[in-house]
Amino acid sequence: MRRLILFTFGIAILSLIGPPVFLSFYLPEKVQNQIVKNLGHAGFEHIEIGHMEKKLGSINISDIKLDKAGFSSIQSIKADYSWKGAFGGQFIHKLTIDSPNLTGELNESGSISVAGLSPDKDNIANSFSSVRTIYIQNGTLDIFLGSLGGANIKYDAQIRTTRNGSLDFKGKIEAVQRQFSGSGKIKGNLNPSGNWQASIEIEQGKIDLPLLKASRVSGLSELSGQSFADFDMVTQLTAGGVSLLNLPWHNVSATVSGDLSDFTVFAEGKSVGQEGVEFTANLVHESALKEYSGSIHADKFFNLFHYLQKNNLISKQIHYPHLMENLSGISFDFQGAPKKPSTRLSYKIQDEEKTINIKGDVDINHEQKTATGNISMPSALIPGPPSGNIFLNGEFKTDYSGINSKTDGHLDLSIKDSSFSLGSANIKGIGGSIHIDDLTALSSKKPQELSFRLPLKPDIKQNGKALIAIENGKAVLINKASLKIFDGSMDTKDIKTETESTTQDFVLTLSDMDLTSAGNHMKINGLSLYGRTKGTIPVSVKENSISIKNGILKSAGPGIIRFLPEKIPSFLQGEDLQLETTRLALENYHYDSFEITMNGATEESMKIQISAKGKNPDLFEGRPFALNLNIESPTAPLFENLLAPETP
Q1: Which single residue of 112, 275, 288, 601 has CA 20 to 30 Å from 578?
Q2: Per-residue model confidence as pLDDT tens digits over 492-523
Q3: How far apart (Å, rounded) are the C-alpha atoms in residues 277 and 330?
Q4: Residue 440, C-beta contacts closer than 8 angstroms, at least 6 positions apart
């Protein structure tokens, strides 16, 4: 009986401790084989194990090669197992993978191939379904991305097997690459069918593309795919500091979509400073940067120009036409494609009213830090002084390698049917070409000829020529201007009209002008003139007012004045003998000489002094006598018959 009891007790003890003791010898080998099997199912078919260390309830495998050449490896894998889990199919309850180092490259199809990893066996969800929890620490992935260069990805992760066989994972990731880099938190899911999705919360990142650089980048990236080697991404980013076309911006947001080989970047932001300049940019990358486009917008041309100048994209010595300063809604649109060793872009500048339409191409050499391009404007109807049609064509080269950029080039301005307001006088029909040989100063070194005309009726023959030069885009230097009219000429010289100046003073010189021709076109009631005149008229233009001080007209030889108005004008009305004599004398006055002095504003009444010597053959037996008149009269009626009607 005693023996039976001892035997029964022994059998019971053996049944309790036998399986664990048996499994303690069996499970380490089973765990190792299972790990190798799992890695094989995941796609690593050529595995070499260096060492294995056994402990109670765990094994440690080290020096694991994942491919024959050793490009991919794992420093160690520690497996914690339980003999109880052997009966449930998950005897490995924790797997710690330390320092997995993988090497891969982006192939022509746009997917990533990893050394040792078979492309058709990468379903990790099925491979590690027998493991409850996996910890990955100090993981690295080195990828060669073709034209993008190399990328180094560091990661730590925790993976848990769910009841439906999928894997939930979370961890930290850090990527360093020549053009894109950043760090953040990652979480996602991998299901048994091989599909996966992940979200990366980017905490610190940067972008370093030829035309777009960004720092302090944060955002969220959504990734999904059917394998880890081939996936799509949609990334929303914000950046604290961005450089686009070597210009600084802030409050920048960007969207990156596509895969590692083919992706697009759309970005928008505002300028650093008070100018209120905004930009948008779109970059298309297909194995390499293929094309780019974008727009820079400003409320005023001055704001855009000042921003570009402040950031050394335009030389501080460069000037621009003053007429462009107040153009509103300026848009600088650009598009292009890389061209080694330069980046080539086309650009267009317009305002919201489409008053200007400047176009051109630029080659930006990033190594030499130069920009070479051309400028053209087929036609522009410029408002204000001057107005009319202006055509542009030119070339430039900017060197921005130093602290201050330097620009050389030339610009040809073709002007057609333009006008220029000089006080209340509107100079019209301005036409010709001006060569700007100093593009930086926007100046022409020598005077060039333009044609012009006064706003007179079409039947009045006139021919105006002016020698002018441009200074700093804001001043017009008139060396000489001459208007052939009434068989004589009106000339002036040495006038400097500045857009910022409200006063202009110059002297008009009249030479040998035919009074008969002038009088016939003036069509003053009862007035006939015969003879010629000359004189000097000092003119002062202030804002919209033209005034004359001590202007003098003189006779150029003898002539005749006949004045027989239907109604006697006010300056000849009166009962005294002198006015009666003057009225009679002017009915047929043959003068030997006369002099007219004028003072006053042309828009108001002008004081006029008339002194003449001559005779009326029908009066005083033809004896000579002098005429002296002091009158004050509005000048507008004298010229209203000469002026062309204003067009709306």
Answers
A1: 601
A2: 988 877 655 556 788 999 999 999 998 888 88
A3: 10
A4: 315, 317, 318, 319, 406, 407, 408
From residue 151, alpha-carbon distances to 126, 198, 213 in Å are: 28, 19, 17
Query: Residue 415's closest CA among 542, 323, 331?
Result: 323
User: What is the spatial distance between Cα 346 and Cα 180, in angstroms, rounded to a whole number?
Assistant: 26
Compute the half-sphere exposure of residue 484: CA atoms within 13 Å on the CB side of its CA: 5
Cα separation values, 298 from 99, 274, 276, 348, Å: 52, 11, 6, 14
Write the pLDDT tens digit of every residue in 290-324. Answer: 888 888 888 888 888 888 778 776 766 666 666 56
Task: Report the b/e string of 72-94 with b at 16+ CB within 10 A.
Answer: bbbebbbbbbbbebbeeebbbee
CA distance 49 to 65: 7
Please state, in angstroms and rounded to a whole number, the distance separating the CA atoms of residues 76 and 136. 10
Cβ(28)–Cβ(59) below 8 Å: yes
Q: Is 603:546 a contact under the CB 8 Å cutoff?
A: yes
What dihedral angle (degrees, nearest 10) is formed by the CA atoms of 395, 399, 404, 407?
A: -20
Distance, CA of 42 to CA of 556 (rounded, Å) = 111
Rounded Cα gap, residues 473 and 477, in angstroms: 11
